[in-house]
Every structure is written in C-alpha cells, then in structure tokens.
Design a protein that fits this description.
The chain has 128 residues and is α+β, with helices and mostly antiparallel strands. Helices cover 41% and strands 17% of the residues. The chain has helices spanning 5-27, 30-46, 100-111; strands at residues 50-54, 57-61, 70-72, 75-77, 79-81, 87-89. The longest helix has 23 residues, at 5-27. The protein is elongated and about 70 Å long.
Length: 128
C-alpha cells in the first residue's frame, strides 16, 4: 500500500529525530572536555594564564596583565566579546561561546589540522 504525503513526512521526521538523538553523545565532547573545563576553572578564578593541549594543538589563554588574548599554537585567535559575556571567534562566526577557551576549542575543531592564519583585518587584539 503506498504512503500518502503525511505518512512520508512523519516517517522521515521520526528517522531524523532518532539519528539526531543518537549523535548527541558523540558531539557532546565526553568526559575529557569536562575534566579540562574543571582544570580551567581555578585558573580563570585566580587570573592565571591557562594552557592546554586540545586535539593535538596548544591553546593558551593569556591574562589581562600579559596583554590578554587567545593563542592557538602561538598564533593569535581573533575574538570578539559581546555584552552578554559571549565570545565569537574569527573561525566560527555562527556560534557564540561562553568562554574564550570554548571559542578556542571550537576554532581548533574547525581548523581540522590546518594552521591558523593571521587575521586579515588589522592588528586588533582582544582583551579578555
């Protein structure tokens, strides 16, 4: 018996929801990211510099006393801070990050092993 349009839409929507629900644990980052966030929390609270390895890359979040900024493998990542304490990187224009560290991690994921290129819009340094 052939399916009508409503049954077809319901079947494909259901399949898409099942696939999306199955992908959530894969995209959530797992326990390793939570452990790294826990390690970063004391550094942020005390105003110390934070350095970590993430997917084989070195991420450094400098303190305001050191000029501030976020660096991936020693190269500056252009970040914009918004009034609601959200950050947007030059690598991920469509996703706000709650912290500079989250923005840097997302940028590393977007780089997929490529080197971070210098910003093309001047020498703007974001102070965190």
């Amino acid at each position: 018996m052939p399916m009508n349009r409503r049954e077809m839409v319901m079947a494909t929507t259901g399949a898409a929801l099942v696939a999306a629900a199955a992908a959530v644990p894969l995209l959530s980052g797992g326990d390793g990211e939570k452990a790294t966030e826990a390690a970063a929390a004391p550094a942020k609270a005390t105003g110390q510099e934070h350095t970590e390895r993430y997917l084989g890359r070195t991420i450094r979040v400098a303190t305001p006393a050191d000029g501030g900024g976020v660096f991936i493998d020693g190269r500056p990542l252009h970040l914009m801070k918004f009034a609601d304490d959200a950050y947007l990187s030059s690598m991920c224009h469509y996703e706000m990050a709650p912290t500079p560290l989250h923005a840097a991690r997302r940028a590393v994921e977007e780089l997929r092993g490529a080197a971070l290129q210098p910003s093309t819009h001047g020498t703007h340094v974001t102070h965190l």
